Amino acid sequence: MPPHPSPLPQRHGIDAAWVRTPGPGPEGTPPWSTMREFLLDRLPAAAEVERRLAAGEFVDQQGHPWSGDEAYRPHTFVWFHRPLAGETRVPFPLGILDRTDNLVVVDKPHFMATTPRGAHVTETALVKLRLALDLPELAPAHRLDRLTAGVLVFTTHRGCRGAYAGAFQSRSVAKTYEAVARFDPELTFPRRLVGRIEKRRGSLQAQLVAGEPNADTLVELVEVRGGYARYRLTPITGKTHQLRLQMADAGLPLVGDPLYPEVREDTPDDYADPLRLVARRLQFTDPLDGVERDYTSGRTLAWPADVRR
Q1: Tens digit of pLDDT for each residue in 7-60?
Q2: Residue 37: Cβ-neighbour burial (10 angstroms; 0-12, 13-18, 19+)
Q3: What is the fold, at CATH topology level, of the domain defined by 95-296?
């Protein structure tokens, strides 16, 4: 983890990035003699690295620019702002459900990431809210997948972040999801989906593997239309892709899911066919003021076009 605070201010609502120089290699001598050599090796586009060094855009922990000619320094942070690429605008509003001194609660649309990652930076809930509400210390108390819509909670300042993060990590927050998926008349409901989930680095999918269970979900049947149904999903745990993976494993893959049970070819987002999953309701006792907080998403889940009513 980087030291705090960053020596660079946010730019366009986005925190500065950083890299940390490694220590000596197995033979005791680092493979770089200067900081320029390290940056050219670690960052793409050599011409861009040279330009940014000349402009003083790489700085140390005190905010002093690196010239690149300095002798290589192990275990040292280099801070900088990543260049912004053009992004496709997410064509759905980010609705605000509540705002207090400590919290901003939103109704996140499908296709909008919670925080910047990869190709999704400016079109994320965090960046949009920081700019719209002038809250530079805004941070998520938890996360939703980019393709999942629904209730999402942010903390407004660093001083309250730990209390709310602790509430979510301790499982004292009740979360209820809704999903549209295949209907199997041979299955009985309610039913529990229990297993062990692991997510390996570099893999798009999480996997159910043998071992002690670490994922538990209650599935209830709400409504049936032809070969599809609407389900209420109550996760007892919070593993990556838990609901999507467990439902697919049960033979009930969610409509519009590009990852489970099979990974679809990487294509642009189809806004007419979102993942039919929404974080419908979120309830918790506020750890700072004791208020019982209860939020419900207004996002709809469209039935497939071929559904028989």
Answers
A1: 999 999 999 999 999 987 766 678 899 999 999 999 988 899 999 999 999 999
A2: middle
A3: Pseudouridine synthase (3.30.2350)
